[in-house]
Structures are given as C-alpha cells and as structure tokens.
Amino acid sequence: MRNVKARMATHQVELGASLHQGGNIRRLSRRLADPAQSTWASLHIDLLELIASWVLASDLLDYIRFRAVCLRWRVMTPCPRGRGVVDPCFQSRQWMMFPEGGGLYPGHPGLLGYVRFFNLSTGTFVRVRLPCFKNHSVLDCPDGLHLLRHNMTTAVRLLHPFTGDVILFPPLSSILLQLAKLGCFISDFNKIQHTRFVRASVSVNLVGTVSMMLALTSLDRVVYASTGNRQWTPTSWKMKHLYSALPFGGSLYVVDGGWGLEPSRILRIDPPEDSNPSSWSVIPPQMVTQCPVELLRMPQLAECNSELLLVGYDNRHSRIVLFWVADLLKGVTTMQLTSIGDQAIFIGGRNMVVNSKSLPSVQGNSITIFNEIGGGLAGRGTLPLYDLGSGTWSQGFDGHFLERPMPRPYSLVLHVATCCQRLFWNSGKIMCFNTDVGLGAEE
C-alpha cells in the first residue's frame, strides 16, 4: 500500500505540472465543481487513495473500473497506461488468455481482432482487441504479461494485454547464433522446437530497465536480454536436466532433475546486476535446496498463495506429495501438505493454480497431472486427478481424448487444462493426446 501511495504522490506532482502546462485547469475546475459530482466524487483524497490501493491490490481491471466512475477519481489516481510492464502494481497476474477451441487461434479472422481472457481466481471473462496477434504467437505468460514472437522475424515483444504497453526484445534467432559460439549447434529441424517451449521471468530495475530471462527447457540453458540489447545472452553453463521452471519474485526458479536415486536440485537464477551485467552468463545458479529423493520423485514447482510449492510423487509413484519450499529450506521434511483449500493445481507444460470456488467443474483441494499415472495419457486416455483429502485418483472429466479432442460442449476444466499445454493453448485446438498441431497463426 505504501508503494501505491508513493505512486499517487508522484502522480499529483505530474498532474499539477500537466494541468498548468496544458491550460485546461479552468475547465477541469468547473467540471469538478459540478453539483452532480458532489457526492462520491467529493471523497477526501486520503480516503480515495486508500480505496484505490485496496482495489488495485485485488485486481487491475477493478482498478480501471474504479477510475472510470467519475472524472475526479480518474484525475486523482495514477493511470496504468504506460506503466503496465515497468510497474508491478499494474501487472495482471491472475489473468490468462482463454483457449477458444474450434480452430479459433488468437488472430483468427473470425475473432475480429479480439482475444478473450479469464481470471484464475474469480472466473471473470473479458474481451480485448489486440490486432498484434495477426502475425504473432504467444510463447508464455509471465506475471500476466504476454510473451509474443513474430512469426517471420522471431522478434520478441512483451505485451500488457489491458494497457497495450509493449517492450521490444531481440529476435529469438540470435539465441541460436550465440549458442553456436559455445559449441552448441542446432539443426534447422530443431530450431523452432527449441525456441517454442520457454518459461520467462521479467524484472525491472530502479531506473526502469526491463530484463527478461528465458528458460530453454529443451536445451537445459537460460538466456537473458534487457531493453536496448540486440541479442540474447546464454549461460555458459548447462544444467543436467531442466525439469521445471517458474518465475517468482523477479528470479527464475528451476528444478534441475536428477536421474534414478540422484536428488533433484532447486536452483535460483537471478537477473543480471546493474553494475556488471556482462558477468551474468558465467555466474552459476544458486542452489536453494535439494529435493529429498526418498520422499519426492519427479518434482515440479508451483506458486500457491504467493509461496513456492513443490509437487511430486512418493517412492511408489502411487500418490502425490506436496511440500512448501520454505519448509525444505528449514530442513523440515515431515510437513507434507494434506490440504490446499479451494485451490486446484494443474501440472503440465505450464503449472497453474486456480480457485475452484469461482470456476465451475474444477474440483478444489486437488491436483490434475499430465502423465501416465492414474490412467493418464498413456493409459485410458483420461486426465488423472488426485484428491488430496482422500488420497485417491479419479478422472479430471468424463470421456476420453486419446486420439482426438473431446466432443463439444467443452467443460471449463478442459479449457484450463489446455492452458497448461502450450502446443494447444495458442493453436485454436483443445487438448488431446495427438500432438500433431501447429501454432495458430503459423499454420
């Protein structure tokens, strides 16, 4: 809240300067003095700031609606446009692009330039006009921002879908050139494949420079670039097996998977320091903790209630076990979670946590996971769901999707599951086991 008030104080100074320079102070004063706006519009500035900070902490779109109530509320509160990427307060973390299905990928002419988004906590839907999807594909969604790749040039854009703010980054093709200098040569057949599956982490320094790190899961490496850079910089070191990656607090947390009885490690990769960014590529990642292999197999990272959560199997691969990463850091390995309340975790190419209270057909206190355990993709063609309360497996939804997508109408849980699988999320297709799909506008 102090950060919001500080931005509002800065906004007041900027507002006063702009009003005096623009010569519109008299017209604005007359409108603010209108008796029709003398009720809610006349709230004391301290109370107005307090309400605005509460609304903004809840949801960005609620804050935008708050500012639209009257002219005075709009004038006296900071505008998110122009600050959507550089100011974390204005990022839309709970919003996810909605997979339409039916071949309607983002940018499809039938959508008329509109893209739908839904809120993972409230289940609210909004529709936004985003013409840039005509020639871009979505790669990831860090902190509610959308990482776009130009289909022809591979240039990267970081887009805020609700403010329209865009930050430009170098083409992904420059990654391949830099890797070649390190002796890592990639065939033409695999070039698109290696830059398709990325996890991004975004950070902003004190002077407003935006840096982005990309975890290349198929290459077991991380690359970074900042605004103004002409190319991506890869790490000189390589992980054993980049099994899972998650942006958290401006850093990138990854699970470096071990094989057999070798424990996996949770690593933290920080963005480059402002004083010496050139040394970033040679600095090894910081080990946060080791995953106890006797308690946890095939670990995955997820963010739940603003904390890091580790999800995996027990030794017999018969049930799911969960740990808070903070407990593992303290050496506490007996505190396995048995409840996450109304939250539901989806483990896939992208790990997501949603609120089941607002999303019909999503079961709370559960984990939906994409693999062969519990009769999964390689079994009966169903989506396995693990109930933490009873410790039992069941199907995530009725029906099979082994050879082709489920018949319509699609349940909301199937759309959420599609968001976890990036092959389908941007393709206009709903998730099925047959992965012979394109990338939407690239088809």
UniProtKB/TrEMBL annotation:
Residues 117-367 form the KIB1-4 beta-propeller domain. It comes from the Eukaryota. This is KIB1-4 beta-propeller domain-containing protein. It comes from Triticum turgidum subsp. durum. The lineage of its organism: Eukaryota, Viridiplantae, Streptophyta, Embryophyta, Tracheophyta.
